[in-house]
């Protein structure tokens, strides 16, 4: 996607909603903001892209200030809620602009709701650093989202598939997906495509019918983990859905730092603590 595409969509939507009031909202900021809106550009406005130079930094700061001023003017007329999904996939410039806006939120009727995976894929150091800086914003509230519980999985199936799921299917889905909505959706689509959702089976049969396509999705979650942590998770999976730290320590190579591996797996949202010295997928 183009640089700052998420912010282009936000500014465009607000501009379209403003209608005839747009010139007043852009007062003094039209030229920089036009870099985000191709339809508002004049021929003298350069395309997006910041060189690693003082001039590039000055252009970035001018654009960021202009977007902040535009949002503040819109919010002065009515409160705003800005939603940014898949924060982990945004370009680094979009994250820098979010950080800039975040420092100015205090006192403004603007709420920013951003969804982000707990772990960032390797190979994107600029993005990782930007996300780390966002995490230090004093205005930030962090709401981790655990997997859906059995009752919630049952509601998810009713909503998505339009069927009342048997208890055995719900148990199999929880065991196989950990309540992850992305994995649940993939499993339901596969079962629906094979006309299996209306059948009656035991838990083991349902689990055997759940698609192997879940594996690549889980592999993406594991990709950013260290080798020792992946080895630890492999041992834990072999032990069962829930395992004791003591049992896990006995199964692992003595050179593996179990405490570090557990911390990394917990941060990645792949396991949760299920009691004193226990882990659960």
Would you mind describing this structure in some detail?
With 281 residues, the chain is mostly helical. 54% of the residues lie in helices and 6% in strands. It is built from 14 helices and 5 strands. The chain has helices at 5-18, 22-25, 30-33, 54-77, 92-103, 125-135, 150-161, 167-177, 181-193, 203-209, 214-222, 227-239, 245-251, 258-267; strands at residues 80-84, 110-114, 242-244, 272-273, 278-280. Strand 4 and strand 5 (278-280) form a beta hairpin. The chain starts with a helix and ends with a strand. Residues 42-54 have low confidence and may be disordered.
Summarize the structure.
The chain is mainly alpha-helical and 281 residues long. It is built from 14 helices and 5 strands.
Topology, element by element:
Layout lengths: L4 H14 L3 H4 L4 H4 L20 H24 L2 E5 L7 H12 L6 E5 L10 H11 L14 H12 L5 H11 L3 H13 L9 H7 L4 H9 L4 H13 L2 E3 H7 L6 H10 L4 E2 L4 E3 L1
Parallel strand pairs: 1-2
Antiparallel strand pairs: 3-5, 4-5
Helix pairs in contact: 5-6, 7-8, 7-9, 8-10, 12-14
């Amino acid at each position: 996607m183009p640089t700052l595409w998420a912010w282009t969509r936000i500014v465009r939507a607000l501009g379209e909603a403003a209608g005839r009031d747009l010139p007043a909202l852009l007062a003094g900021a039209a030229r920089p903001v036009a870099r985000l809106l191709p339809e508002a550009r004049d021929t003298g406005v350069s395309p997006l892209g910041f060189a690693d130079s003082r001039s590039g930094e000055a252009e970035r700061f001018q654009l960021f200030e202009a977007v902040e001023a535009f949002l503040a003017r819109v919010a002065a007329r009515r409160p705003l809620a800005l939603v940014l999904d898949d924060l982990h996939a945004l370009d680094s410039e979009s994250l820098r602009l979010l950080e800039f806006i975040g420092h100015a939120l205090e006192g403004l009727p603007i709420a920013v709701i951003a969804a982000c995976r707990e772990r960032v894929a390797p190979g994107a150091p600029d993005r990782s650093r930007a996300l780390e800086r966002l995490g230090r914003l004093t205005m930030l509230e962090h709401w981790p989202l655990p997997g859906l519980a059995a009752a919630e999985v049952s509601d998810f199936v009713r909503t998505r598939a339009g069927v009342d799921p048997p208890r055995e299917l719900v148990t199999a889905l929880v065991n196989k997906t950990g309540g992850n909505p992305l994995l649940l959706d993939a499993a339901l689509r596969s079962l629906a495509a094979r006309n299996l959702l209306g059948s009656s089976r035991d838990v083991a049969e349902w689990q055997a019918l759940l698609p192997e396509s879940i594996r690549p999705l889980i592999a993406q979650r594991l990709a950013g983990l260290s080798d020792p942590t992946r080895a630890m998770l492999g041992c834990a999976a072999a032990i069962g859905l829930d395992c004791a730290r003591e049992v896990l320590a006995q199964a692992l190579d003595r050179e593996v730092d179990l405490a570090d591996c557990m911390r990394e797996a917990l941060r990645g949202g792949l396991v949760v603590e299920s009691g004193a010295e226990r882990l659960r997928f």
